[in-house]
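COMPLEX REQUEST
Ligand: S-adenosylmethionine
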Amino acid sequence: MSDSQLVDPFGRRITYLRLSVTDRCDFRCTYCMGEDMQFLPRDQVLSLEELYTVADAFIALGVRRIRITGGEPLVRKGLTSLLARLGARPELEDLAITSNGSQLAGRAAELRAAGVRRLNISLDSLRRERFAAFTRSDRLPQVLAGIDAARAAGFERIKLNCVVQKGRNDDEVCELVEYALARALDISFIEEMPLGSISSHDRTRTLCSSDEVRARLAERWQLTPSLERSGGPSRYYRVDGLPSRIGFISPHSHNFCGDCNRVRVTAEGKLVLCLGHEGALDLRQLLRSHPGDGARLRAALVEALQLKPQRHHFDAAEQVQVLRFMSMTGG
Ligand code: SAM
Ligand code: SF4
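STATUS: Structure written out below.
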């Protein structure tokens, strides 16, 4: 039983924080960003010290897993020093990063040494042109080199994240699984969420359900459901006793809110209680008006938890429901 003091009105204990360290990114994935993004002025982004203070408050309240995300976390200057401070906290059972992989070739070993245990790397296609169309960046070779470097660095687990779109990469899911199986990596397939307004595609037409992906994979492999969880919303399957797990993140087709154990803090210090709702508490204002007042920060977090919504209501028929892009919230 967790000793979390962060319990919402539905009895869910919060033990997992996703902390976004930047809204900036060296990619412009079509499902995540517009082509011309306005990024936050630097003084509106939490400093490394403020990020640590927020993480520290959550740890004091029982959070045991932290995932660092963004934007692309590796573009944040000084990230490794923050990771090393968090990596040294004995209370944390897990410190993880979600990255697009573009800089991992040169940085994977440094992240592991700082105490990062698990890595999620986004990979929507193994075909160079497609990858470039998804990310608006022709850097598939760098990402694949980054995955190799991460494997060599000895992380406890590495998981690939793939957003599947009908008519764009749904025909490639078997190749992606083959790639993962051959390297003993986990892989999760994600249904695209209606976050932020985009012009590149019509989400109602490209939505590909996890059931469709699983049906394709089942033509090739026998998938055995697994009860394992990684602390996030993936539902996992195993193949032929191999070490890889195949996961499905299905915000549309299989609501995962009932056992939600997480909250997010954006790069500008907004506490987001649910990915599918606009409401957020401004922690930056609190941090800057009462510097050093940890008790006040913790009390604000406990109180805010009372407002955590029961569930999201993503609906494929509606184009945009939450104006915040995933790059703002942190995936
Ligand atoms: N830049 C890093 C990366 O791409 O892994 C970390 C941040 S990114 C916002 C985190 C995850 O969110 C990525 O796996 C990405 O594919 C996913 N994502 C972004 N926009 C999404 C959307 N609209 N629906 C579903 N997943 C999305
Ligand atoms: Fe950047 Fe990640 Fe968003 Fe792609 S999904 S634009 S890599 S933040």
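REMARKS: Residues 316-320 have pLDDT under 50 and may be disordered. The chain has one domain: 3-329.
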